[in-house]
């Protein structure tokens, strides 16, 4: 390093080749040591488990301490795909993902528009709205489980006092109803996140565009369609991809609210995988299921990004 | 170099290298487990113990027991951890390779799995022969698998029948009318007709092991068994179907609370404590909570008796005992055994007889012990002589889940009783 500072170097000319290489090598060493902790974390905590899971998915492993683990090739994938439980939970997961993402997007857009409106104490509203998202999922699950309780739940009390029902219902008692109730809990928690993503998009739209549109006598629906929506496409695409992937992996809220019941009505694919791997101790099939989930998520994300990119260009 | 190869090729190569190294170290098993990772240790040091949060002996009670043990064994330090019953099995399994817990609580339905998969250590050599005669009939078998013992029974448990004395008396009935399930339904009808409570019976019928426990007790009353002689699930027998049909009828007749399909035992206790339920099955530890004025409106009004008889005349209780086991990968098994010996000792168990039943035969003849909890001792004592066990299957968990789902399908009116039990048997016995 000292040679570099001592030798007068012309402004534009590069240092001699030998010196430059040494400097790069020094930089390289420094970079290596700086990056090492991150690399260890990434490989140790992410890459290694991913590859290990892939490996296990090709073996029959029916105990966490199994020593005798015969190689079964793609057998675990085949048996996962052949099981009716897999397709049933896949269907429920798809329903959960589509419904919750759609609801969160619509409600989030409305919320973002409200939070973007000029009003007093806007900072306060913005701060309050974020609270549901700040609640840990497992706490959220316990809370909604209490709200929907068949005997003393607040939801029953409200509906009864409004005269909408004439006796208490077990909201988490019917398979399909309880799946929808879990969606309600998930939407309540996640809408603020979606709203904030969209709010960021909204605030970045220049005011001049609205003014120009108003001069052209455009109404609100037209401005929404021609200005807000196209310019929000990047935010929406991020939200949709994020939420689809998150919703597809839904686990903790199910674990907290219903544990997959009643009659497996809320057993999503992630919960099914957990039960297969850890409760039934069928780690081979469990690992195969994890990889199937990853594949579905990759496919979904690719389709979304393609569609949104294309529609984004066509709208602009 | 393009982005994909930058992102994928290098990590893949390094990852594969890491993986190969790990496999070489672990002796070529994909789980990384060797045949044995455990050690007996020096009989001192720290013992990590896994318990459950429950209705019987509480976390405070365990803390007291641990304190006492540490006083007697100053060179052993016990670190208890508590999880809910619903999380206990998976916690034991996932912690097994690391040997995190030296001692853990095993439910009666898990020894086959834990033994055959090498998770629990074989304790046969440590158990004194005298225990076979001194421990309550069948309790020592709680953690037995293929003639070996994998745990020591601690506070054996079964479901007793609880009834609200005031509600029963209000229709002119008494305990004598409750000796059979038919009798219970007749009294329930009168209580409902009088408008005392909307649903006289509540059950823990949510999709959980609790549902199988209630079903076990009814199955026994109808004279059925879980498995056929070949050890496979056979609840589609006439008795198995009749028991389920009885459960469905009690919901359709408006006698059983339809919300029962969302209840665990704790919800049933709450409903009893609020006076909203007249009859329920629950563990023997429930009476203590129902007589606790801080959480109960029915203090002193709850009677407890042996489970009612069914058409077969049988009235067995479900065997819901638990045992303390040692993790096969525990590095401190001698100290762990000392702790288990202390916990399961007659002296220690008798101290907590007000909430949990001891596993030693002679405790039931000691007036100074039974007087702490006379009603439960009477009912449980009779029931411990006649228990119905859930099957000892290596993959019990899978079978139980299949059974839970199909029982719920029938209770929710999605399937007929016969269809549900046929489907449960098919799903559970599938290879």
The name of the CATH topology of the largest domain in chain B is D-Maltodextrin-Binding Protein, domain 2
- The CATH architecture of the largest domain in chain A is Orthogonal Bundle
* Number of structurally distinct domains of chain A: 2
Rg from alpha-carbon coordinates of chain A: 27 Å
* The CATH superfamily title of the largest domain in chain A: MetI-like
Number of helical elements of chain A? 14
Mean pLDDT of chain A: 87
The percent range for strand residues of chain A is under 5%
Listing every helix as H and every strand as E from the N terminus to the C terminus, the arrangement of chain B reads HEHEHEHHEEEEHHEHHHEHEEEHHHHEHH
Q: Unreliable runs of chain A, pLDDT <50, ≥5 residues?
A: 1-10
Give the termini separation of chain A.
52 Å
Share of residues in strands of chain B? 5-15%
In angstroms, what is the radius of gyration of chain B?
24 Å
Q: Tell me the CATH superfamily of the largest domain in chain B.
A: Periplasmic binding protein-like II
Biggest interface goes to:
A-B, 41 and 50 residues
Detailed description of the structure:
The complex is a heterodimer of chains A (316) and B (431). Chain A is mainly α. Chain A folds into two domains: 2-56; 84-315, MetI-like fold (Orthogonal Bundle), CATH 1.10.3720. In chain A, 74% of the residues lie in helices and 0% in strands. Chain A has helices at 2-6, 17-56, 75-82, 84-116, 122-129, 131-134, 137-147, 154-161, 175-203, 207-215, 220-248, 252-257, 269-279, 283-315. The radius of gyration of chain A is 27 Å and the shape is globular. The model of chain A is unreliable at 1-10 (pLDDT under 50). Chain B has two domains: 45-157 and 320-385, 3-Layer(aba) Sandwich (D-Maltodextrin-Binding Protein, domain 2); 159-318 and 395-429, Periplasmic binding protein-like II (D-Maltodextrin-Binding Protein, domain 2, 3-Layer(aba) Sandwich), CATH 3.40.190. Chain B contains 17 helices and 13 strands. Chain B has helices spanning 3-25, 59-72, 85-95, 111-116, 131-134, 165-170, 181-193, 209-221, 238-252, 265-273, 286-290, 333-344, 346-351, 367-370, 374-384, 396-411, 417-429; strands spanning 45-53, 76-84, 103-107, 144-145, 148-149, 152-154, 159-164, 201-202, 279-283, 302-305, 317-318, 322-326, 387-388. In chain B, helix 8 (209-221) packs across helix 9 (238-252). The termini of chain B are far apart. In chain B, 51% of the residues are buried. Mean pLDDT of chain B is 88; it is low at 1-9. At the A-B interface, helix 2 and helix 13 of A face helix 1, helix 3, helix 10 and helix 16 of B.
């Amino acid at each position: 390093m000292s040679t570099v500072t001592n030798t007068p170097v012309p402004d534009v000319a590069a240092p001699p080749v030998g010196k430059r290489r040494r400097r790069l090598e020094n930089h390289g060493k420094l970079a290596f040591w700086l990056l090492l902790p991150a690399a260890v974390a990434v490989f140790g905590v992410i890459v290694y488990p991913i590859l290990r899971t892939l490996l296990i998915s090709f073996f029959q492993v029916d105990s966490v301490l199994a020593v005798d683990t015969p190689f079964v090739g793609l057998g675990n994938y085949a048996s996962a795909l052949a099981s009716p439980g897999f397709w049933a939970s896949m269907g429920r997961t798809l329903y959960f993902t589509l419904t919750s993402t759609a609801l969160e997007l619509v409600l989030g857009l409305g919320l973002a528009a409200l939070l973007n409106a000029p009003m007093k104490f806007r900072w306060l509203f913005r701060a309050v709205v974020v609270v549901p998202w700040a609640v840990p999922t497992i706490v959220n699950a316990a809370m909604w489980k209490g709200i929907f309780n068949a005997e003393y739940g607040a939801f029953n009390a409200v509906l009864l006092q409004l005269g909408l029902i004439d006796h208490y219902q077990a909201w988490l008692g019917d398979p399909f109803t309880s799946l929808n109730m879990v969606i309600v809990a998930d939407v309540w928690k996640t809408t603020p996140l979606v709203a904030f993503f969209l709010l960021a998009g909204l605030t970045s739209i220049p005011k001049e565009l609205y003014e120009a549109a108003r001069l052209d006598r455009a109404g609100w629906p037209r401005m929404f369609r021609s200005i807000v929506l196209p310019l929000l496409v990047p935010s929406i695409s991020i939200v949709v991809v994020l939420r689809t992937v998150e919703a597809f992996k839904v686990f903790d809220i199910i674990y907290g609210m219903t544990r997959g019941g009643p009659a497996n009505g809320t057993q999503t694919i992630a919960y099914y995988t957990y039960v297969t791997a850890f409760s039934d101790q069928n780690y081979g099939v469990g690992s195969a299921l994890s990889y199937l989930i990853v594949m579905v998520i990759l496919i979904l994300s690719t389709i979304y990004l393609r569609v949104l990119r294309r529609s984004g260009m066509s709208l602009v | 170099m393009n982005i994909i190869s930058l992102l994928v090729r290098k990590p893949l190569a390094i990852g594969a290298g890491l993986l190969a190294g790990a496999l070489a170290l672990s002796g070529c098993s994909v789980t990384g487990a060797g045949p044995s990772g455990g050690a007996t240790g020096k009989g001192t040091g720290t013992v990590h113990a896994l318990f459950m949060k429950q209705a019987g002996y509480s976390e405070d009670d365990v803390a007291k027991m641990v304190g006492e043990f540490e006083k007697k064994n100053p060179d052993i330090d016990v670190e208890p951890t508590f999880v809910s019953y619903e999380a206990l099995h998976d916690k034991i399994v996932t912690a097994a390779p690391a040997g995190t817990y030296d001692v853990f609580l095993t439910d009666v339905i898990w020894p086959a799995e834990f033994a055959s998969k090498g998770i629990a250590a074989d304790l046969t050599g440590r158990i004194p022969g005298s225990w076979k005669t001194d421990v309550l009939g069948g309790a020592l078998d709680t953690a037995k698998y293929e003639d070996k013992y994998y745990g020591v029974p601690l506070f054996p448990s079964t479901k007793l029948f609880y009834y609200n004395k005031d509600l029963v008396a209000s229709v002119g009935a008494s305990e004598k009318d409750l000796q059979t399930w038919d009798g219970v339904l007749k009294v329930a009808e009168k209580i409902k007709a009088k408008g005392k409570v909307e649903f006289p019976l509540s059950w823990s019928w949510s999709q959980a092991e609790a549902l199988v426990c209630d079903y076990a007790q009814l199955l026994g009353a109808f004279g059925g068994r879980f498995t056929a002689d070949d050890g496979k699930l056979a609840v589609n027998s006439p008795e198995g179907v009749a028991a389920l049909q009885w459960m469905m009828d009690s919901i359709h007749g408006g006698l059983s609370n339809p919300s029962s399909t969302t209840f665990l035992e704790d919800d049933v206790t709450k409903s009893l404590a609020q006076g909203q339920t007249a009859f329920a099955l629950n563990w023997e530890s429930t009476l203590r909570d129902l007589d606790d004025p801080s959480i109960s409106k029915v203090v002193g009004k709850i009677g407890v008796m042996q489970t009612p008889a069914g058409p077969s005349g049988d009235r067995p209780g479900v065997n819901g005992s638990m045992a303390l086991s040692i993790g096969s990968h525990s590095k401190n098994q001698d100290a762990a055994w000392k702790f288990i010996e202390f916990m399961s000792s007659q002296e220690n168990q008798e101290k907590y007889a007000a909430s949990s039943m001891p596993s030693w035969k002679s405790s039931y003849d000691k007036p100074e012990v039974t007087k702490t909890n006379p009603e439960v001792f009477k009912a449980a004592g009779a029931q411990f002589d006649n228990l119905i066990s859930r099957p000892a299957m290596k993959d019990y968990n899978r079978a139980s889940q299949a059974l839970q789902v199909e029982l719920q399908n029938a209770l929710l009116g999605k399937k007929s009783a016969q269809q549900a039990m046929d489907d449960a048997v098919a799903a559970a016995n599938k290879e």
